[in-house]
Amino acid sequence: MITVSGLEFGYGDRTVLDGIDLTVGHGELVALVGVNGCGKSTLLRLIAGLLTPRRGTVRLDGTDLASLSRREVARRLAVLHQALAPVPGLTVRQLVRQGRYPHRGPLGMLGEPDDGVAEEAMELTGVAHMAGRVLDTLSGGERQRVRLALAVAQRSPILLLDEPTAHLDVRHQLEVLALVRRLRDSRDLTVLAVLHELDHAARFADRIVALAGGRVAADGPPREVVTEELLATVFGVRGRVVHDERNDAPHCFLDHPLDAAHGPAVAGPAVHGPAVSP
To answer: Whole-model pTM?
Structure first.
């Protein structure tokens, strides 16, 4: 379980997050949404221990993140960043094996490769057939599945995803999100994902948490959180929300951006659905 309490963070005089409280229960798939620059990726990096908050705490299963070493954090959570630094000539199998580092350490990685775990991760994410291929030769959708395989090989109970559908076409966006949900179900993972498309968040997540003005503006099940009010106050657009019976999720039709003629788009009071048990 992830517990965030009173989290504050900023760059210089600019405050990005101002008193964030958030709990993600075991086995949940929670989507973080909001406009660009609202602090979604920053919050994810704070939960991963990659940034240090001004105030507040992050706890993983009750343990203060600040008390854990980097390897201990990596045993508890895996992070799928928006991009990986390029390594010329690196193959899919070589990258996925790097997921074993938190468990084996630098000396263990020098020994026999932990093929069983890496191979299983590649099978689960559908990339085993391309294990010998160089990463630079893969398409965007293929690379994203390989990065998921890397995270799965880490065998951490918590998975943090920073815009896993960025730069992908619609088909590959749906494939990646469906794969994330299958992995959550089959591996009993807790997933917190930054998502750009509100419709995707409504369809694939158990809960949606919207950020605005450095705070949580809405938190709850998609059917209760995704409203016309949310579109206006958080995203600054006028739109309509209908319920899609085919996938039991709300769907947004966006009409036009709000401007001075329609009134400013500012975050209103937080909207909360029913409490979700950890």
So the answer is: 0.85
